[in-house]
Structure formats: C-alpha cells, structure tokens
Amino acid sequence: MPNPIPNLEYHGFSLADHTGSLLLKPPTKQVKDVYEVANTTNSLSTIITYRDRLRDILLENVPVQWGKKCIGYEETDDGVWVLFEDGSKEFCDILVG
C-alpha cells in the first residue's frame, strides 16, 4: 500500500485538544510508514491520559441526553430518530450508545 504522506521521512502521532494542548503522546519509535503504527502490537499498551479531560473534549459541542433511557431508534435517509422511555424523541445525524 502506498504511503499517504510521501514527503515526510518519519512519522509520529499524538493527540491534542482544539487549543493544541498535548493530551497524549504514546511512547513509540519513529516509523517510516504510517501503517507501521497500526501494526505495532504494544505501542498503545502504555498510553496514559487524563480520562476526565479526554471525555470533556470529546463531549464538547455534542448534545448528550443524560438520565434518559433509549428504548429504540429509527434510521432514515437523513439521520436517526432516537426514541426515549419518557415518550420524547430526538433527531440526530449519528447515534452512539
């Protein structure tokens, strides 16, 4: 498979928030091909990050229905209707559960 970033000799990876603050940088060697990252079996076994900070970043600008019980969903061509136990329903692009 061809390298999707052919102009760079070495690649690394890290996770940062929207302000550029580093959340995690796995302790891993430099790789010449980004596909080596996917094939490394132990590179992600020692990642340490703050769970609360990561969760908060993932939840930014995402409407979450806390304290509601989802009893079903209906897929349409435009998105998903989520049905709740209290009789309410919400329309969304994606449903994560």
Annotation keywords:
14% helix, 2 domains, FAD/NAD-bd_sf, 97 residues, alpha+beta, single chain, three-stranded antiparallel sheet, two-stranded antiparallel sheet
What does the model show?
With 97 residues, this protein is α+β, with helices and mostly antiparallel strands. It folds into two domains: 15-59, no CATH class; 63-97. Helix content is 14%, strand content 21%. It is built from two helices and five strands; from the N terminus they run ββααβββ. Strands 3-4-5 form a three-stranded antiparallel beta sheet, with no helix packed on it. A two-stranded antiparallel sheet has the order 1-2. A hairpin with a 4-residue loop joins strand 4 and strand 5 (89-92). The chain is elongated and about 45 Å long. The two termini are 34 Å apart. Residues 5-9 and 42-47 have low confidence and may be disordered. InterPro entries: FAD/NAD-bd_sf.
What's this model, at a glance?
With 97 residues, this protein is of the alpha+beta class. It is 14% helix and 21% strand. It folds into two domains: 15-59, no CATH class; 63-97.
